[in-house]
Hints:
Protein name: ABC transporter ATP-binding protein
Domain ABC transporter: 6-241
Organism: Cryobacterium algoricola
Strand content: 25-35%
Distance between the termini: 38 Å
CATH class of the domain at 4-95 and 165-241: Alpha Beta
CATH topology of the domain at 4-95 and 165-241: Rossmann fold
Keywords: ATP-binding, Nucleotide-binding, Transport
Strand order of the largest sheet: 6-7-8-3-9-10
GO molecular function, one term: ATP binding
Bound molecules: adenosine-5'-triphosphate, magnesium ion
Amino acid sequence: MSQELLRLTGVSRQYGRGETAVSALAGIDLTIAAGEMVAVMGASGSGKSTLLTVAGGLTKPTSGEVVIDGQWISELSAKQLAVVRRRTLGFVFQDFNLIPALTALENVTLPLELDGWRARDSRRAGMDALASVELSDRAHRFPDDLSGGQQQRVAIARAVVGTRRLILADEPTGALDSQTGELVLRILRRRVDAGAGAGAVLVTHDARHAAWADRVVHLQDGRIVGQTSQGTAEEALLGADR
Ligand SMILES: Nc1ncnc2c1ncn2[C@@H]1O[C@H](COP(=O)(O)OP(=O)(O)OP(=O)(O)O)[C@@H](O)[C@H]1O
Ligand SMILES: [Mg+2]
């Protein structure tokens, strides 16, 4: 198991060509280690979502290299890349993106089923993941019967189920009220701290939410213009007590 979950080296991404070309990312160098949660902040259009989709192998960089858990993405076939996405990566979106016709448990185990897991094993892994987000008692509910915060926790469970370790979350608290958003972040934080080798990249507009991360990366016009390391929110709270 590699301690380095993600490495971007000199990553650029252009959309379009010629006069109308947009440079969404320009020379990004970024590394995420296991046990690390990194927040990405920046104005609308600064390239945050593009950064996540490139980091997750969903968008090809125009130049530069992406290495996910030791695998050079540019050297993988489409099929091999799909396997990396299913086994290593979990995406969490602003609007949860759960399948309404599937229960919470079925939503969580879907990537395992697609990967050919036996029903019993995927069920067990799915229940473990739901337990880690404190939703064991909602496993057989459908998304419509869950609150927004619960739906987002299901999405986090799906992002970490089985062997998935790199969580890429694009404004996962955007559709939640601030208290529910904090709860979702606390669960994400706990998951990264659990010692299972997980790491997370979290896009957020909210500085209070970014405070849950170990490091904040500031993007502007597709470039990293600043990085701040910080203690976890818990350490910050402890510090305030002293
Ligand atoms: N599919 C696309 N085709 C063309 N241009 C795109 C595409 N996706 C993004 N862009 C452009 O790339 C730049 C970065 O977009 P991106 O969505 O990564 O920004 P963002 O920081 O996530 O913004 P927001 O905070 O609004 O979500 C923007 O100028 C955007 O218009
Ligand atoms: Mg975006």
